[in-house]
Amino acid sequence: MARILKKRIREAFLAYVLLAPSFVVFAIFVFYPFLKNIEIPFYSHTGCRGFGVNRVCAEEFVGFSVWREILASNEFAHSLWVTLKFTFLTVPAGIGLGLVLAVIAHARLRGITIYRTIFSSTVATSAAVASVIFFSLMNPRAGIWRLHIDGIPILEHPTWALPAVAVVATWQSLGLAFIVMSSGLQALPDEVLEAAAIDGAGPFRRFARVTLPLMGPILFFAFVVGSISAFKTFAEIDLLTPGGGTSDSTKVLAYGVYEAGFASGDQVRAAVFATGLFICVLLLTLAQLRLERRVKYAR
Fold first, then answer.
1. Would you list the domain boundaries of the chain?
2. What is the pTM of this model?
3. How far apart are CA 88 and CA 145, in angstroms?
4. How confident is the model at residue 298 (pLDDT cuts 50, 70, 90)?
5. How many other C-beta atoms are found inside a 10 Å radius of the C-beta of residue 255?
6. Contacts of 219 by beta carbon, 8 Å cutoff, 6+ apart
7. CA torsion angle for 259, 251, 172, 230 (degrees, to 10)?
8. Sign of torsion, CA 228 230 235 238?
9. At what angle do helices 267-291 and 216-231 cross, to 10 degrees?
10. CATH class for domain 74-294?
């Protein structure tokens, strides 16, 4: 018994030694900045002198007053509402299109490998590259798709700019959605689908009554990952609609963090926006995990 206990202690010690470098990196570059970001709004920095590393400020504890002021402001509420609309526009569309393409690619047709490669190609395209491509296509002067609504270029329109950016984000994430859905379809038990076909179920009925229920865990995973990714969207907003669009129509929470911290130099407001974004993503994830109880993992 003592020998087994000693062996377990030795193995645990070795594991912690091997994990120590990762713990140090996470502590320095993730946990410390995160905690510092939460601490900043609790203090008011006044009487600052000097510049750069020599900058010295007198700190005064102000409690939650700054948090209440910013989180209850119209600016934060507007950015949260825009983020929710953007998520609603991109996540269902991305999952739906990815599933449709995966069903098409799952068919045993000649040359289907080529189509699978084309469908999954966007996974290798970064958000910046996708944004530049679509910005060139929708350029109001030289683009192929010179779309104007009410005489206003679509990317400058206060109503249609967000859906236009959502199209770009959906296209860029389509490759990943396709790969995830394809892996789910390939893992389905063929005998169940064959049994449904023998019982007389047509293609659409098999898809609705058999394929979709069995794809529940994959769809849930794609929904969680897609929602988190949508809440963190920044590159498409910044490149396609600089400044958050007309009347801040595309100013999502992530762009609000950038605008406050870098464009305006308001470190406190940026810290509150960033923490608010983290809280929103955390609550969204917890709500989705509550829905996981309705997902059936049994095959």
1. 32-63, 74-294
2. 0.83
3. 24
4. low
5. 27
6. 95, 99, 184, 212
7. 100
8. negative
9. 170
10. mainly alpha
